[in-house]
Amino acid sequence: MQDLPNLFLVGPMGAGKSTIGRLLAAELSRDFVDSDHEIQARCGADIPWIFDVEGEAGFREREQQMVDELTQRQGVVLATGGGAVMRETNRRALRERGTVIYLYTTVEQQLKRTAKDRNRPLLQGGNPEEILRAMFAKRDPLYRATADLIVRTDRRGPRSVVGEIVRRVSRLVDPLQCKA
Ligand SMILES: Nc1ncnc2c1ncn2[C@@H]1O[C@H](COP(=O)(O)OP(=O)(O)OP(=O)(O)O)[C@@H](O)[C@H]1O
Ligand SMILES: O=C(O)C1=C[C@@H](O)[C@@H](O)[C@H](O)C1
Ligand SMILES: [Mg+2]
């Protein structure tokens, strides 16, 4: 599937953007890039540390620069951070430079998938369920407004989600799928 556009994954913490993105890129023989990982690699610091030193505002500036840079690559699968859609500039870059896939999941699944991980500063120091519900209310409309496709990840494993994405994206690119 050489004609596929860039594929950009958006969605909340624990939706599976990093996990599914990596598998999807391997399946399509594409490069995989992960905005959170790239920011951490360039700073030599993990996300909680960046939040401690620069605050969320500093992290969001770095994220905007990274989204701008990574969306200009060709032939990539990109996992964005869960909050990237909060900025209009990021939403525009994503929409204009590739096909955007919203990985949807429920707050119940997010809680299970993020419970043991301390690398998400916005979930520390409060009730994670309340935080995730408030984020969902604010962000779900933005994920939907940015996305070309919405794919549920709460009821099936990562490999099955990858299969669905490949099928649905190839239909978007070539709606009739006629045999030669
Ligand atoms: N479809 C799935 N079914 C079951 N578990 C999943 C699924 N997708 C991801 N997971 C698990 O959920 C956890 C979080 O996934 P992942 O780190 O890929 O989420 P993310 O969307 O990248 O989150 P963040 O925005 O915080 O980076 C991982 O342990 C992963 O193995
Ligand atoms: O949902 C969010 O705002 C975040 C999600 C993660 O991917 C990281 O980008 C960071 O922890 C913030
Ligand atoms: Mg991730």
From TrEMBL:
Q: Which residues form the signal peptide?
A: none
Where does the UniProt entry say this protein principally localizes?
Answer: cytoplasm
Cofactor requirement: Mg(2+)
Query: EC top class, in one word?
Result: transferase
Which superkingdom? Bacteria
According to the UniProt entry, its GO molecular function terms are:
shikimate kinase activity
**What is this enzyme's catalytic activity, as reactions?**
shikimate + ATP = 3-phosphoshikimate + ADP + H(+)
Assembly and partners are described as: Monomer.
Q: Per its record, how is this protein called by name?
A: Shikimate kinase
